[in-house]
Design a protein that fits this description.
The chain is α+β, with helices and mostly antiparallel strands and 152 residues long. The chain folds into two domains: 53 residues, SH3 type barrels; 79 residues, Arc Repressor Mutant, subunit A (Orthogonal Bundle), CATH 1.10.10.1650. Helices cover 28% and strands 20% of the residues. The chain is built from four helices and seven strands; from the N terminus they run H-E-E-E-E-E-E-E-H-H-H. It has a five-stranded antiparallel β-sheet with strand order 4-3-2-1-5, with no helix packed on it. A two-stranded antiparallel ribbon has the order 6-7. The N and C termini lie far apart (50 Å). The N terminus and C terminus are likely disordered.
Length: 152
């Protein structure tokens, strides 16, 4: 029997253990690997599912958002949302109108590439941020020291 994940471990769980699974709503945390795939636990309802190797799975730490200059890791986008919201959940729903989503995202990331970042991408970022926040996962800091520069 596996011990339950503590609140402390959950807060500091790395985004490389958080997954988006194609065709499944919400996010999942990686529980364990199996011979034919892995077991993941839903952050929405806590149910565990077995996922095969043929499934379309994205690891949050591997996702980036296009800006006009570079691709910004999702972790850094979450940090910007967190800063804008002063640590709270977003002031906008992921179900808001396209123009509202784009205006909100422009406030968070003014240099995002409007030609390559779609409203559906913005919805996911907002939904995922709020889901992580609801689950107490609010430490989006990076292990890399080069990402710690502050604006003056």
């Amino acid at each position: 029997m596996r011990p339950e994940i503590t609140e402390f471990e959950l807060k500091y769980m790395s985004l490389d253990k958080i997954l988006s699974i194609g065709g499944k709503p919400g996010l999942f945390k990686l529980v364990t690997q199996t011979r034919s795939g892995f077991v993941a636990e839903s952050l929405l309802d806590g149910k565990k599912i077995t996922v095969g190797m043929q499934s379309n799975v994205s690891i949050l730490s591997e996702i980036a958002i296009y800006t006009l200059e570079e691709e910004l890791p999702l972790r850094e986008v979450f940090q910007k949302v967190q800063l804008k919201e002063k640590g709270a959940k977003t002031s906008i729903s992921h179900k808001a109108a396209k123009i509202e989503l784009e205006e909100y995202f422009f406030e968070v990331l003014p240099n995002y590439d409007e030609d390559r970042v779609y409203a559906s991408d913005i919805k996911k970022v907002i939904q995922w941020y709020n889901l992580l926040h609801e689950n107490g996962m609010t430490d989006f800091s990076s292990d890399d020291k080069d990402a710690t520069s502050e604006e003056e």
